[in-house]
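[Solved] Which block belongs to which protein?

Original post:
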Amino acid sequence: MTRSSAPCSTANVADLTPTPTLTRRGWTLSVLAWFLLCLVQAPPLTVADTKHDLVADPWGFLHQVLSPWTDIFPLGQLQNQAYGYLFPHGLFFALLSPLPDWLTQRLWWTLLLTLAFAGTVKLLEATGTGSRTSRLIAAVLYALSPRILTTLGAISSEAWPVALVPWILLPLVRILATDAPPPRRVATAALSSTVAVLCLGAVNAVATAAAVLPALVWWLVAGVGRSGQRRTAWRFMAWWAPAMVLACFWWIGPLLILGRYSPPFTDYIESAGITTHWFSLGEILRGTTSWTPFLSDERQAGAALVSEPVFVAGTLIVALLGLLGLLRLRDSHRTAWLMMLATGLLIFGLAGPFSPVAEDVRSFLDGAGAPLRNLHKFDALVRLPLIVGVAHLLSRVRVPIQRAQWAHPERHRPVVVVLTVGLLLGVVTAPAWSGRLVPVDGYRSVPTYWSEAAAWLNNPENGASASRTMILPRAASARQNWGNTRDEPAQALLDVPWVVRDAVPLVPPEAIRGLDGVQREFDTGTASPTLAAALTQQGVGFLLVRSDLTSAADTPGARLVLRTLRTSPGFTEEASFGDGDIHIFRVGEDAATTAPRTIHVDDLDVVAGGAEVLPRLAAADGAARDRILVGDAAAAGLTGDLAGTPVTVTDTPALREHSFGTVTSPDSAIRAPSDPWRGMNPVRDYPSVGTLTEVRESGGHILASSAADDPTSLDGADTLSSVSAAVDDDPTTAWYPASGSPVNQSLTVSLDEPVQQLRLTAQAQGTSLRLQVTTSREGQTVASTTMQVSVGRETTVSLPPGSADQVELRITGAWGRAGLSEFSLTAPDGTDVTPRRDIVVPPLTDGSSPGRWVLGQEIAEGTMRRTVTVPDGGTEVTVTSADCGVDVLIDGVAVPCGATLALAGGDHEVRSTARWVELRTPASESSTGGSGDRIVVTPTAVNSGRQARLDVDGQSVDLEPVTVNGWQQGWLVPASWSAVASLTDEDLAAAVTVDFPATTTYRAWLAAGLAAALVLLGAWLFLLLSSRGGYQRDRERAPRPTGAVGTATAALAGAAVAWILAGIPGILVAAVTVGALQIPHRWIRGTWIVLVSGGLATVLFTRGPWGAGGLSNSYAGDSLTAQLLLVVCLSAVVAAPRADRAFHQRDTARRAGSSTSE
């Protein structure tokens, strides 16, 4: 690789020997180059990078994060790691806030890239790796590695720790490369490393830990693991460990507070099945383990790196060059770099697609290990060793300086090599210099109508400050037709409390359910007489309706919302801004408030259900009442106070599968417990205190290969197209397969008992279809036949003779979208043996009696079917519904609105196409009353960290919390307290003070953390300024031969990595590779093995990149062959040097023997 085909003199070739540093001019030019690179990224557009507040209102944001709890944000909530922006991220943007927003972003990116580049150059110099040119190339490859290219423009807070990894490692490498350094130099090195840790910030604690881990590996291997440096290593740790405490102290306390009081939102965001799905060895080596670009093209550079073959090939070739460089590395640091690489491979490989323990690891990551779920943050453990390998390998490249050589590259191999390296560098960095660092949909500025609307709401004269403003319509993220801010534009503009239903609100799950219940009312597009009252009860006094969202925001749009508001009573349009882009509505005549108010326990409606049912109950009652869920009453110890109070029984919560992160069509139809769970999250839906309404199967089980009500499908959930729709006796609904061709999709019907000579009746919907019907018994096929099923009429066939307990209905032909509207199976005697799927409302089990049943289908079902259980003895019920123009069927009998009928004890089926149905018993009018207890409630989400104190007559007492209206924070005031007996409801509410006591600890910890950071910086500066002389790396130590113990340890470690990456096949190919290297043949050498195996793997990955749109049937990452080829490369890197030494020793001995014999 390094030789020309013709001899070249030193006059013809510039020998690029290592130099200590770039010159000052060189560093200046490098900074300028990085700035220019950032400057050409879509100027002058601001992009959605990490946090909108950083560019919109950085000083206000920094002031806001000084409190952990905020009543301003949706429903009141803890701010998720917002303290981590205090330094350096937030401070940087605050100090540069006078500059244009887009320019501040580019300067931040410049700083990040410069640090990544310079740190890598310094680190390579400290290890003596590479030539001056190869170090610069390697540093560029690190600064523009796939990890940084993917995250820089969209979430630079994740790229920032990667940029600082070399700076954390550098002082340790330098001090361990020095023989017997004085204690002061050791202390200076330790503090220098921890100052870099201090600069990491704390936007994400796991990213910070990931940035520190390479230094810890180096300390263990190159320090503690080497007897000559063990003393220095422990001296370093004696300074490093306490200094780390000083560097991280400021965010450890706030993180503990967040962990103590935050809702379990990690259950509702990305699952381990998603975050680790692309952990094949090829992606690990390339550095494309971040899952987001595989699912979204918002991050342009990242999407290109995972889907375009030229970038797949280029990045994998760079990784293979790094492996070749590590193979040829012979200095004393080789073991440390290999151990760092092995650590990274183990972390990624444990959850990889071919790991034998992947399922257990993913279960851990979805449970106790949820904070570690995004393992892609550990990329630096793999990236740095590979970059070192590239620097070492390219140090052999010499750059010809004669013009004649460049004029005839075919005659001069160095010219070809240099051109090839340059081409490769250009390809792998193309996403940067082609302007794709920024995410899509940048914007010049937030339109003025947003600031005008916010100013109107912030104006005290308009009254919005006393209540909460709801932003409509709901949207997963804020992607407007003028640009993408990701965070709500109003977030940095509003001083008044506000709420929006976005992808995953950081509030308790029952509060999200309550928010969803309200949102569904806006989607009807029809008048809702009690909607205004329901919003007032939730503290919502104003609505901000925006019309500038795009479909990419995952939103139903504003049209239906505006129609609902303009036809419903209680809403007054107060103002509009822009060209109808924003409308502001006032809610109700009585002003809503977020201040505490008092309610009476005796007036509470006790509800068996979830918080999402409250708008339905308001509609049924004609007014909004305060309610308490059965589970919340029990948790607060109010069971005795409410004993005998009739319970409102609802069909909520229901067993559904929810697609977390989406807001349009996110819920499946109601499921049976045995139905497959197609999502990857650790929970199916937002948990609720209520008992689940679910499908009760009888007579057998029906399993679909797929169903259109699957919320994880591309088109979202169509709840009219579930498995139950094929057996619900409703011709308007049908089972449809998930999006895509219906051919080869199937329903498998398992019967409780085998039946002879079945008859099948079926009816299609959409288009006619052809079914292949296969019967089987105990897993053995009995017979098969085909039938043509038409739309709109039933088709009946007798299935081939034979006893069967399972029938498969497989679609083998269809002309367009086709589904099964209905099917049934009958025995020869005419008995219907079709499995039933009845939706059963759970009966009360605590001894209380139902006062009424309120059943609904806010999530459309076509015909609502519910089975309710009437207690023994029976009862009379009066039937009403949302639409009295249609009858309600009870046990198949039509019952008009307002009619009363007697129901015997036991199960009864209720059917209706109305949105809700109420069955009211005479007991609903009764109430035990008399407790006199009161509750002070605020329309904010419950949180165990909030406390209320009652101050009366100079006495203070802490109140016990209770949840009201499904999610609102309340505190119980017993009537037995004589001090409150004379207080009116208004006076009682005014006497209660609500706070978040952990705020004091939070701020004290931040202050102490600031002091600790200043102590660290002061000590570091003192040692740095008082130290004499600069750093000088001592003479390189020759690597020592590995002993028997070391060889055995390396073999075990290599086998463990191979097993983790590819299981038993991985161990086998690793063993074969190591064995082959023992063969004394010039072509069976490590270099050739890496080139051949790596080349074949590159071909596979280039031919099978992740497909456009997130789908590919030939994705190479799923190929065990590609995985094993790269395991071969890794095995060669580890084993080849030892095999090469043995080969050379045998060759030398052979030559010596030959010369002696002569």
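(Second protein starts here: sequence line, then its structure tokens.)
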Amino acid sequence: MREDGLRSILINPNVATIQTDTRFADRVYLLPVTPQYVESVIEKERPDAIMLSYGGQTALNCGVGLAEGGVLEKYGVQVLGTDVGGIRTAEDRQLFKDAMGRCGVPVLPSDTVTDFESAKRTARRLGYPVIVRVAYTLGGKGGGVAHNELELHEIVERGIKASMVGQVLIEEYIGGWKQIEYEVMRDTAGNGVIVCNMENILAMKVHTGDNIVVAPSQTINNREYHMLRSASLRAASHVGIVGECNVQFALDTASEKYVAIEMNPRLSRSSALASKATGYPLAYMSAKIGLGYGLHELTNTITKSTTACFEPSLDYVVCKHPRWDFAKFDQVKRKLGPTMKSVGEVMGVGRTFEESLQKAIRMLDSGMDGLVLNRFGSEQYTEEELEERLIHFDDMILYNVAAAVSRGFDTARISRLSSIDPWFVEKIRNIVGMAGRLKSEPDRSTMRDAKAAGFSDVQIGRACGRTAAQIRAVRKGMGILPQVKQIDSLAAEWPAATNYLYMTYGGTDHDVTVPAGERAAMVLGAGPYRIGSSVEFDWGTVNMVWGIREHSHIPVAVVNCNPETVSTDYDICNRLYFEELTHERVMDIVEFESPRGVVTGVGGQAANNLTPSLAASGVPILGTSAVDVDRAEDRSKFSAELDKLHIRQPRWQAFSSLEGARIFAHEVGFPVLVRPSYVLSGAAMKVVWSADELKTYTQEATRVSPDHPVVISKFMLNSLEVDVDGVSDGDNVIIGAVVEHIDSAGVHSGDAMMCIPPWRLGNMIVQTITEYTIKIARTFRIRGPFNLQFLVHDGEVYVIELNIRASRSMPFVSKLVGMNLISLASRAVMGGRLPAVPHDRWRDIRTVGIKVPQFSFMQLEGADLTLGVEMRSTGEAACFGESFYDALSKALGAVGYNLPSGGSALITVGGTPNKEKLLAAVAKLGGMGFNILATEHTAEFLEERLGAVKVVHKISEPERQPNIADLLYQRKIDFIINIPSTATLEKYIGMLEDEYQIRRKALELGIPVLTTIELAEAFVNTLEWMRSHETTKHPIKPYQI
């Protein structure tokens, strides 16, 4: 838009994304994307037009709401790109079905319903199993496969609630058909091209977001390809797509029958994958088409000579693999199906399917070195158990296919059980066979073939009984080296001077060379989004690249493998390597690039963990040295340094034996905190309340971080937690802000609500935190970004940990304070000095910022939504305001909390101390006219002190009325305060089943559940504040530093 001289206004409450830096849009509003807030911005800014296709499902739903409410017409705002009529046709299940009928694209027999009785009739007519799809939702939210009436009832009730129009589609289930996708680009003149065609390996059984996807399709023939291509273009035309859309088909290759499943009239995960897989910039081209350009008027940004009408062709294979984080959740069901459960994804690029698949598996950073020859052997199942696991998929499905191959299952049998095409089974058979060959004949020919099949040096070493370093030396001696290849979008049919690169053993020479004498800085990205590492590290990576190029004026090479990021846009840097973040591959790139050094401090823990091994291999680390990073990451070394500085820390000890741990725990008293070293987002970190738990969790921590001692510290109840984000050049220290957690200690910093400025800390506490921060930054010789975490307990300040890298909260701090911490850090990592900035500059701000986590519990069947020391959130939002409650009300709304002005609140609280703490908040609710419902023991406590409350009965007692389950289904509860007891072991040894059922059922029905005292109090006070105040709507200010 800026290229065309247009001003733009962006509305997005995601503070962590690079998109909300003021560098892109002219005005940025960190506000909820809801019709109410967007209307207020339209009224203030009076834009001429609006684009709805770039903010996912949230933006589409908001746009439809604005149109239906008459807002767009009232202010004369034109929709650019696909209009609201087209969006409705694609998103409304019945309208889509009708449109497909008119253009001759078949769809499955189905009915659109708005209640369970109608759903039941349709299911009986179609025959079970049926699939329930929900209108206007993302990631298959609320949907599922029903095998009987009981399952149907549960899914339909959940789905109707999840749909903004209260509508679900009941459809025939065809899990065994192939799932094929087409990305279509279409202009206003009706010209259309297919940008990418993709095949989902796990067929229709699994949502495309959870599927393993290859591009181009590998198992459909030319006739099938063109049949579906033609149907995609007809579908896009009849819906009225202007710009980009994704069309999903189910194909039965036995009969060549196909049906259209759905269309996304927007940029989606599949679009991001297609864009990165082909090098065709879908979002850019779609925006230009929205502005009125024709495809023939737009130039391919890679070739610079062909137009956007040229359909990309690939001379490589791309494999997208999702990342799941099921291990973070108790009770979660790992089964894959029509509801998306993954939290991120990677894209492997290779010259063979085997190479791209094994690269993708390593990119996931989930402890696997490939499909076979891993550190841990696969679980041993009986033949019957293995068959069951091939029929009912979980996240280990490909490993189970490999196990079946090893057990002697033939290809036809595996394919019949799993619905995975025989071609893919044979490719997995090739990988399994190569592992056997490596063990029996490890010669040069085998080594060459193994590398071409995607085997890492670690895997080969495991097969041959050697270390990865030994294999690397032998391989290089044999002249077996990877080649650097270009992703040029046209398979070298036209010349392309592209900087978009990958490495493969399927080539004979390099496509590019590094200019003579050029020594770039190399920046490592964060890899896949996961719990604990999301878009905030992409923000850090991109700002580091920009900072180095702008302040140091040297070229930058980026290594990353996540197709959803801006850091993997090839126009951000001088050279982009879409590659693994493993020691082997980073060393391959270092040897090709000969960079002046590598930045590992902005890619989260994944990049940071490579620091020691890269330094040991002689690679210069830009920023804080590997020795100093190790002093901070190793819990024992870090604590010893704090002792020297006379800085308090919770009492701790490192252990390698259970007996020593048990004696220490009894000395300091339970609860204690068990934590491994070198982990992200609290992996295997647990609060332990008994000796039995101590045994279990110590073993788990040792498994997660086997080369480092387990540290056990006293867990300090009723403490405040504080973060400090800063930058240092080894001498000068810039403090971005002192950030207070609203939740008390015990909730992981990534899951806690955060506030700037701190709202409960006195000046002396803040002064002590500032002094400790400066001392620690200088002691650890930090050059670059860092994050310090503190506890405040009984007026004393304790240090918990130091992270010498960019943190999750840095975008939040930077945007609120107006000081880009990573841009400043880019000077320090390149050896420059930081400008003089007062340590308390952050106190000059006159705005309050609140950051609130976004959770995806709804997508994870069975997951409990209580919070603890291990992180569970998958995203975040932040809003700024003139007061604490101004900011908090907007931030809660941004992550989906309903803020009711009246109604009924269910209170169920464990333990007398918790009940005492919540008494004032419950009294306030009663004073505002809310009906107070409570479970028996809570009701008794409240009645003694506040007067009569309505008693409700447990879900497990359906015969007693009124029952919580009935009230939830009847929508007679508006929100729930459910505080689990921390005075007992219940929370940590499977919380009472009934309380879990309340939380889970409410979650599925979209009813807010507040599980910490601090959040409950803040929520109630926010409701009170909203009765007499209006929220503010101001754009954020650009960075001043």
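Accepted answer:
You had them paired correctly. Confirming on the second one: Residues 983-991 have pLDDT under 50 and may be disordered.
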